[in-house]
Amino acid sequence: xxxxxxxxxxxxxxxxxxxxxxxxxxxxxxxxxxxxxxxxxxxxxxxxxxxxxxxxxxxxxxxxxxxxxxxxxxxxxxxxxxxxxxxxxxxxxxxxxxxxxxxxxxxxxxxxxxxxxxxxxxxxxxxxxxxxxxxxxxxxxxxxxxxxxxxxxxxxxxxxxxxxxxxxxxxxxxxxxxxxxxxxxxxxxxxxxxxxxxxxxxxxxxxxxxxxxxxxxxxxxxxxxxxxxxxxxxxxxxxxxxxxxxxxxxxxxxxxxxxxxxxxxxxxxxxxxxxxxxxxxxxxxxxxxxxxxxxxxxxxxxxxxxxxxxxxxxxxxxxxxxxxxxxxxxxxxxxxxxxxxxxxxxxxxxxxxxxxxxxxxxxxxxxxxxxxxxxxxxxxxxxxxxxxxxxxxxxxxxxxxxx
Length: 403
Ligand code: NAD
Ligand code: MG
Hints:
Helix content is 44%, strand content 14%. It is an alpha/beta fold. It has two domains: 3-171, Rossmann fold; 172-401, RNA polymerase sigma factor, region 2, helix turn helix motif (Rna Polymerase Sigma Factor, Chain: A, Orthogonal Bundle), CATH 1.10.1740. The protein has a seven-stranded parallel β-sheet, with helices on both faces. It has a four-stranded mixed β-sheet with strand order 9-8-10-11, with helices on one face. It is globular, with a radius of gyration of 20 Å.
């Protein structure tokens, strides 16, 4: 965390909001993060309102959410669904937009105070950049935004004096540990990983793993892409890169430890060797609520962790030989430039193909590795060059597996 970003944890950031109500734009409202964010809003109507809702394909759920939360506007990504959404909301004053560009246009509007960036994948980058340029606070769930172009995103956030408040549970934990520590140097951060459904398994087992099996996460219920990323440990690699940018860390300051119970959400070790941890049951509503209410904590009725029930917390080293995606992500983290962007694009294609039973579990790693070797390295890419690297990586990946 650099000086400007670090100081945000202690500063008096508190977006105005109308009548004390923070107006939230939920990008990706029909997803796992989006629906949980709406639960938090529904439980706190005196503190939050849903002003913008966006969905990619799921028009039915978007309509239902719009009728319940009465936002200022909605965006349906899939233009073929525009007419259905428009008609269903015809008796309301809700404005309806469609298409990819509309996401950026709405992000540039003034009708909200905070964007909850809950779109999955690279698609979340451009709207989030627009919101930052528009001076809006960001509650960031979409880790791919920072993996793809973290240097540019964080620089813009500082320029526009925009707080980027993490929603990812590990980064929320680190952020919470840093409150009150503005002037204290971080020695390292320790990201905890559940290990996913295949913890302790070896390649001879993983080669036969099927989609349905990989979608069963032991501790968290999430969208399909991040669930597969958790099974391959790519998710932890993406999170190491996310941590680098959020907290301005060097790669060697970021460590991963497997902690199967997911009670400690991550830790910060300071210069005196003292380690702070943030704990709780694995429930994304907590980091979502924290990011939306920051700098305040607000009460809720979520279940509490009971030390009498889960009395053992275990820790072990991640198995980088078996879960090679994490090793590839560490390589991308160390090398920097456009490599994390390229890796992310290849991974999105790999997960897409695995979810459609086009490639097997271990093929995902081979594909990502090949693409990382193939796309030319750029040390200090411009935003345009990041976009190009993403496109190139996707094309290579799709070619290799004949998608
Ligand atoms: P999800 O698949 O459940 O939902 C994704 C949302 O994004 C949906 O609303 C969908 O309509 C929208 N979307 C998908 N593709 C789009 C596109 N091309 N253009 C516009 N909108 C699109 O995903 P999720 O699990 O909610 O994850 C969202 C983000 O949050 C991811 O980046 C993920 O890594 C991160 N995250 C999720 C969790 C979790 O518990 N689910 C935890 C930490 C971080
Ligand atoms: Mg996480």
